[in-house]
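Notes taken during the Thursday session

The instructor put the following on the board and asked us to keep it in front of us for the whole hour. The protein is N-acetyl-alpha-D-glucosaminyl L-malate synthase BshA. We were told not to look anything up and to reason only from what is written here. First, the residues (377 in total):
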Amino acid sequence: MKALKIGITCYPTVGGSGIVATELGKRLAEKGHEIHFITSGLPFRLDRAYTNINFHKVEVNQYQIFRYPPYDLTLASKMAEVTERYDLDLLHVHYAVPHAVSAALAKDMSGGNVKVMTTLHGTDITVLANDPSLQNIIRYGINRSDKVTAVSRFLVNETKEQLDIAKHMEPVYNFVPPNIAVPANQHALRRSYDIKDDEDVIVHMSNFRPVKRVEDVVRAFRLIRQEKRSKLLLIGDGRERNSIEELVEAEGIQEDVLFLGNQSRIYELISLADAMLLLSEKESFGLTALEAMAVGVPVIGTNIGGIPEVICDGETGLIRPVYDYEAAAEATLAILNDKAMHRRMSNAAKTRAFSKFNSDTIVASYEKLYAEMLERP
Ligand code: GMT
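Then, after some discussion, the predicted structure tokens were revealed:
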């Protein structure tokens, strides 16, 4: 396809949507498109210089006259400026609020030719769409977009139901890069975390929001640890971290729970694990589950949102009812205690990650949708 000029807006900080948007921009740039990140900070996965990737910083100023910084407006203004200066073909925004709304404004401000694609990632639908003060503006952002995608079938259906939207929305799954390198021998890394040879490793990675149910992960681990010598690696940070640290102390398992905070070399760390726990009560996709599968780690997940579209129950991991940490612990032990099952699931997880969620296929799907969008007047 012809090389396009694409503006990408996302939250640039740690988080699945920022990762997906940045990786998408990188892959598109490798394919010859000209990419303009229009964001409030440099996307954290933009780890090296690319000649055809530009970064345009959105100012988030705190003027005394404003009680709250007008991010949505400065973003719209920057999007319009970049659209005009670089003659962008399209703006691809991640999240309906405020990004799709800012893009609609930018489109109007810059003469109406630029196309807008919005990708829904979850929170604006599963949490914010329940808030009557935001429903109308979310619906507006979606309806004003030329194309809308969501990261799972669950999220497409949820958006239609919650917001009563008739517009066609395309499910486009998140993806992993094909060339994930992890050291074949992880002994040194295990030793550096004081993980003994006879210990199993369970990992959980999230932003420690209440919806992630990290307390269920800790409680499940306590039960696993009663049966097997094991360590729990907690990767990530967020507002519940302190209360989780308190829970770990109250359970008396602090020796075996490692809080690693935010990390950049996540594949290396995840691949230390024998299983991942993702016990969220809301999750439109579950990128961390896919990242674990990509390095052959079976995932025990909950039966909510898009998780069952990522984990194949009984094949690449096990799905158990949300809030039932005892069932999650039993499922984890079943995998850890059966080496043949573990090996089978590990291989199946890798195969599924690279066949169904392959970056080449998913990026090509986005390109096809861009082309369709640009063909329409
Ligand atoms: O899960 C979060 O709290 C972060 C959020 C984000 O904006 O990155 O994640 C959402 O988008 C990810 C990428 O598409 C999905 O993998 C997560 O499932 C989704 N989170 C929720 O639905 C809660």
